[in-house]
Amino acid sequence: MTIIVTPKAGPAKDIEKDASMVKQKEMMAAHYDRLTNVPQTGEKVCATFVPGNLNELIMCFDLVNNLPEVNAIQSGLRRQSGAYVLEAEKIGHSEDVCTYVKSDIGMMAKGNIGPNGKKMPDPDVLLLSYTGCFTFMKWFELLREQYKCETIMLHTPYMGDGKITKNMTDYMVKQLKEEVIPKLERVSGVKFDIDRLRENLKKSARAEDDLVRVLQSAKHKPSPIDAYFGGIYYIGPIFGAFRGTDDAIDYYSFLRAEVEERIAAGKGPVTPDGDMGKEKYRLVVEGPPNYTNFRQFWKMFYDEGAVVVASTYSKVGGVYDLGFRHDPDKPLETLAEYCLGVYTNRSLPMRIDMIANYLNEYEADGLLINSIKSCNSFSAGQLLIMREVEKRTGKPAAFIESDLVDPRYFSAANIKNRLESYFQMIEQKRAGGRAAA
Amino acid sequence: MKTYVGIDLGSTTTKAILIDEDRAVIGRGITNSRSNYSTAARVASEEARIDARFTLFRRALNAGGGKSGELDEFLGALERSFRLLQFLEQLGDLEETCRGQVKGERFAKVEDAVREAIVEIFKRLREEAPSLYAPGAKRKSDFFRDIAGSRYHAQAEDVARAAAIPYELLLNVYDKSIIEVENRPPSGGLSDKFRQALARVLAADSAVKTGSTDVPKTIEKTLDIDLEETYLVGTGYGRVTLPFSKEHIRSEILCHGLGAHMMYPNTRTVLDIGGQDTKGIQIDANGIVENFQMNDRCAAGCGRYLGYIADEMNMGLHELGPLAMKSNRPARINSTCTVFAGAELRDRLSLGEKREDILAGLHRSIILRAISIISRSGGVTSEFTFTGGVAKNEAAVRELKKVIKENYGDVTINIDPESIYTGALGAAEFARRAHLEQPEGRAA
């Protein structure tokens, strides 16, 4: 569910690339090359998903991490997902199925060519950390059928009561010990070394500290970052194949330094068209973005002076700003707690609390929900979330609809109309009694 | 005098409202949007200015002691006379344009005959024009395109037969010309047209009864009042295509909310069903929008859907409601998909279902969809206002009242006969407020 690319270059004028952007681009390119070079290097591939991504553990077995949703996002950004989705529908997947799945299936059907133009490798193992999205399970069922490879499922109990109990972590640690680790050892031929895991976890925590600083920088006015559109770039490395690596530590320290510089200079976020103009609206956004028209979508915000100061989507691969860090002192428990805490595994009341707190802590003007047509896991209950948050905070909310990577469900005129109405509504609310009839 | 203009550029029609400094509506104008928003905006606001003149005439004559019955009669005659002049003027333009179209290969050998036919058609149109604007005459539409079109078609058929030339040739000439004429900006000189109209009325009945007032003098004085376009705000789907700067544009959701509040200050929920969208809007005690929902990506169940059904049934849009009202066993129709509607309709007709029952079912399904949008926006808690073109449809209104009662109990439901102007009214008020906020407010 994450995206790991640098923003496409904006207008012809020379854009000064920040050190973090350059670094991320290099990391991504190297990672895709590593994946597509597997036939030569003989490395083994583990496919897994962003929420509940156990990268620290995967690296202990010298496996290369491949994330199908990230590939779907890449296809969306490169405007190829439309054709892939159609291909998947031709094979027999219905119109309402998650479009990440269909983009992935369609991409495989069309030769499985990755963003670097080379063929993506077949997975040697499918590792599903089940964290609230039922579709992921079906997705891997389809992949298992296709690749006939080892499949591992780590079941994460749902946070229905809003808290993690010892029972839950014990249950997960047991699975890790008895199922996940033995199978990974078998597939990779590498013996598990818990000290190696501790080392990786230590690195994760360092990068996580810097990420949280970056995300919380949006409490400044003006906010130096956009925590949704920009946030998607910021979460790339840590949600993907880099958590627990030195690369991630470097990336987040560069990023943090850049953001601190922006704060010192009183600057707003960087957009594809350069520095954003005056900050007029501060929003909290719930739900994934649209990737097929990502820049057009973002532009509808920054053109109007709207900046997203907090988003739930930037928490799908791990919620760190509420205090969780990977802990090398309890390596398996910490992996369990990480999976339990990801956004998609949180109950509706937990999501409501989180959003309402964001609105207050980040002094936002209101909540915007982007409801994804093909993602029931995110969309179910969103209207209830909206009402409850409105009631608790007294701040206005709005609802727009689009899709992840199916270009057919992005209606620019409709979305723009709603966004503009929403911004004007905020404006009007501010004017309040002054304009009252 | 200062006037504030609100223009609502809808997908089907463009509406304009003129209000004065006391927020009183002094003029309303409407025209078809004709895929040319900038002309539509100009035409609608000119129509609103014409209407405003009549309001001012009435105010002046009223002040002069005119009795309201007599005033109505006089102003009615003046308006008919004015409309006739306006019609004849556009007819002249249309004739000239039509004649200009008669050239090229298509017309080889028949060029002269077609030209003569056109002269004859327009002669007849001019002759019958006064009857179109006679007292009590009913017109299905007030848009020039509709009136001129239907009469041209009727006359052309006769003339073509008599002259033994193909009817299609004459239609082709018309089709090409009407677009051109319609998109020509309205010509100036409104005051002169009013004077001529007045002269005609006086010539017909020199003893116009309007109290002791000197009518020509009063009219003349009123014509001298400058209707200054103090501030203009545009809204609706076409707003972004207009050369309005940002300060002159408001979202139609805000405009509808404010417009409904001005009509009914206790309104808390507004439903607007327009040509291509349906909006459910919640507003507070000041007309400020609290929440809204609208149809997504698809215009199912909007005004266009009814237009499509009317076409499929070979009926006029305004005839659907009355026919549906005759039903007492509405069909159960689930789909509001405009594309499927035709198939559903034919299927049911072939099964022997009655036209009125099918239509009643279609109206109900539109309303059910609208109610789902309203409930998503927060439901109905207090006074409720229904606006937009579909609010003129009695069958839709009947279903709405039923469904609201079933879901929300007894609530006050407001439907203003002028509800089509709700968005424009809100826009005009936004214009007034914007001007107050910057006293040097320039017109757009």
Total beta strands of chain B? 9
Strands side by side in the biggest sheet of chain A = 2-1-3-4
Overall, the morphology of chain A is globular
| The CATH architecture of the largest domain in chain B | 2-Layer Sandwich
Structural class of chain B: alpha/beta
Mean of all residue-level pLDDT scores of chain A: 93
Biggest sheet strand line-up of chain B: 7-6-5-8-9
Tally of structural domains of chain A: 1
Q: Into how many domains do the coordinates of chain B divide? A: 3
Number of strands of chain A: 10
For the largest beta-sheet of chain A, the strand count, sense and barrel status come to:
4 strands, parallel
**Rounded Rg of chain A:** 21 Å
Low-confidence stretches of chain B: none
CATH class label of the largest domain in chain B: Alpha Beta
From the structure provided, what is the oligomeric state, counting identical versus distinct chains? Answer: heterodimer
The helix-strand sequence of chain A is HHEHEHHHEHEHHHHEEEHEHHEHHEH
Task: Record keyword descriptors for this entry.
heterodimer; A: 437 residues; alpha/beta; four-stranded parallel sheet; 50% helix; 11% strand; globular; disordered N terminus; B: 444 residues; Nucleotidyltransferase, domain 5; 3 domains; five-stranded mixed sheet; four-stranded mixed sheet; 14 helices; 9 strands
